[in-house]
Amino acid sequence: MKFKRLPALVGLSFALFGFKGQASLLINEVDYDQPGSDTAEFIELFNAGNTSLDLFGYSLSLINGNSGAIYRSFDLPDLQLQAGAYFVLCGDSANVINCDLNVSPASNLIQNGAPDALALFFGASQIDSLSYEGSVAGFTEGSGAGLVDSATVAYLGLSRWPNGADSDSNNADFAQACITPGMANTDRTSGCTDPVVVPPIGVPEPAAWLLLGAGLVLLRGPRGRCLHEADGLRTTVGHEPKRRL
């Protein structure tokens, strides 16, 4: 993550209103190429910080590697993204799970490189960037050499690994891996399947009724003490934190 084009006024606002908040938002995953038509493209952002941040004022730009010009730019909505949460921008939410911002076009949204780049801005300041299939001047951290999405294998993309890792070197931080839009990245590169939302793990309904019966029988514990959640009668188990929308 690097910071560029930082006007004095913007720099002052960073200093006064939480520079660390802006610094924690990262480009975390991209899938720009699929077998056949590119109709399931997405870019995932990740709040790697310890506090929530407001996405208002951020924009995501797509960079043409031949000219270095921005060919598409999208303003992010005014919402709070919780610490450890994800935000997914896609071209067709019918083909991308956990898509938070559906933009146009629905196909061929992101150019396929050799090279091209993505850049995250806060105001006029460049917060993070990713060059792929080579390096794009002004939009590369370290080098983008060797970062190639697959045009022949489904459900492969480019992901930060470990999830959210940032050493300011694109081809050290990113690698080809199975896609996980809106979820923690993986390092798997084979056997990729269409990602699905994993529902929270709960107590099966029959077991829940048994627990309810046990609770009625054991409403009062030893020495007349009432049994509460702390006694283990209620447990909530869920999957990893998701973004707050």
From TrEMBL:
PANTHER family: LTD DOMAIN-CONTAINING PROTEIN, SI:CH211-183D21.1. Pfam families: LTD (PF00932). PROSITE patterns: LTD. The keyword Signal applies. Residues 17-157 form the LTD domain. It comes from endosymbiont of Riftia pachyptila. Transmembrane segments: none annotated. Residues 1-23 form the signal peptide. It comes from the Bacteria. Keywords: Signal. This is LTD domain-containing protein. The keyword Signal applies.
